[in-house]
Task: inverse folding
């Protein structure tokens, strides 16, 4: 049975790599369905925990795939799941980037570039709203986010880790003072 | 307001290339981004390292790469890394960027999973993570500020930005559909606009 796991991991994550338009969050429900419902690799509870870990650890949220692979098949599983999720989309992106960067300066290229840039910014804005809404911080998330943006605009070369540290400290301070413990 | 490193009229762009960074420099920048990018906001981190601090890419090049990386399937940040690596040093650059980006988190995420039981019992872990995530969002707000300011020069671009944000962010319509619809209208408008966008 376990010999089939690498193949099964590939069969699940390679297609997700090529349909995950708009980033990793768009395939979350699908991955959960496959890993929990179809293949019974993990329970729903384990899925939620792995998801939380993937958000707490550095790197893209899609490292959730790495964790699922690791959970069911150790280091080999982690490697296979990571490659399965990232290699196909990366190859496609490389091809597009190659063509894109070669035709710089042509009229259609300029039109695409100028036309798509505002859409890209709109998507970043939508992502920020979604993250701030589902995050546990409420009003203080907005305050810290705006404060951090202000500092970064004022001093663009300041090291972000310093700002992260302050952000974390502010939240810990607020929670400690208000006596409210995180519920999530 | 800092002037852009190059005028964006194509010809100058080709004739004044920035010094090409080494493969190792690309790897190490993306390795650091991957490893230090707590709480998301990786795009903001890439913008800072590649455009603000190192000036490897102009703001125009970054913004169009950002749009492309969001439209193509795959994680935005991995696509953006491939795009930047390819732009700087071709296939080796793209490889260095993506391997650099993912190799740190690969081990870090497994390390965190192994320590998860212990971390869970700490009272303020959750609060600290929320705070870091909020600060990371600030990096994205910087990009939004820069990008949105550029679109105010042009009504069609501004309309495309607002439409995308409202449809995806507030109305939760399907992202691929919105991108295809608004994106093609916006590109069409840009096609009929005067080709010069310098200024």
Result:
């Amino acid at each position: 049975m376990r010999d089939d796991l690498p193949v099964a991991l590939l069969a699940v994550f390679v297609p997700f790599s090529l349909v995950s338009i708009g980033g990793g969050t768009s395939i979350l429900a699908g991955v959960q369905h496959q890993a929990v419902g179809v293949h019974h690799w993990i329970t729903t509870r384990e899925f939620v925990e792995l998801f939380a870990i993937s958000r707490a650890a550095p790197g893209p949220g899609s490292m959730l795939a790495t964790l699922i692979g690791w959970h069911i098949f150790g280091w080999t599983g982690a490697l296979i799941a990571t490659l399965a999720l990232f290699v196909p989309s990366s190859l496609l992106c490389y091809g597009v980037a190659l063509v894109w960067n070669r035709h710089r300066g042509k009229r259609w290229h300029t039109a695409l570039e100028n036309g798509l840039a505002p859409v890209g910014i709109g998507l970043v804005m939508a992502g920020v709203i979604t993250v701030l809404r589902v995050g546990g911080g409420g009003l203080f998330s907005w305050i810290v986010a705006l404060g951090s943006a202000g500092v970064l605009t004022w001093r663009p070369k300041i090291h972000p880790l310093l700002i992260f540290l302050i952000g974390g400290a502010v939240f810990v301070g607020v929670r400690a003072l208000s006596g409210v413990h995180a519920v999530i | 307001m800092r002037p852009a490193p190059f005028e964006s009229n194509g010809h100058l762009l080709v004739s004044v290339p920035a010094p090409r960074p080494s493969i190792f420099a690309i790897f190490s920048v993306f390795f650091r981004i991957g490893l230090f990018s707590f709480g998301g906001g990786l795009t903001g981190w890439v913008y800072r390292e590649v455009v603000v601090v190192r000036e490897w890419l102009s703001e125009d090049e970054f913004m169009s790469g950002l749009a492309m990386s969001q439209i193509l399937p795959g994680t935005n940040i991995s696509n953006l890394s491939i795009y930047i690596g390819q732009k700087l040093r071709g296939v080796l650059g793209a490889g260095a960027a993506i391997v650099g980006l993912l190799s740190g988190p690969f081990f870090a995420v497994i390390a965190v999973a192994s320590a998860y039981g212990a971390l869970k019992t700490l009272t303020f872990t959750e609060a600290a993570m929320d705070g870091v995530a909020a600060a990371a969002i600030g990096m994205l707000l910087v990009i939004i500020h820069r990008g949105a300011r550029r679109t105010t020069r042009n009504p069609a671009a501004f309309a495309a930005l607002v439409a995308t944000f409202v449809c995806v962010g507030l109305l939760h319509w399907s992202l691929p559909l919105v991108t295809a619809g608004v994106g093609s209208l916006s590109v069409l408008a840009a096609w009929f606009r005067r080709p010069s966008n310098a200024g």
Q: What stands out?
A: Residues 1-15 of chain B have pLDDT under 50 and may be disordered. Helices of chain B lie at 11-15, 23-36, 42-53, 59-71, 76-121, 125-151, 155-170, 175-192.
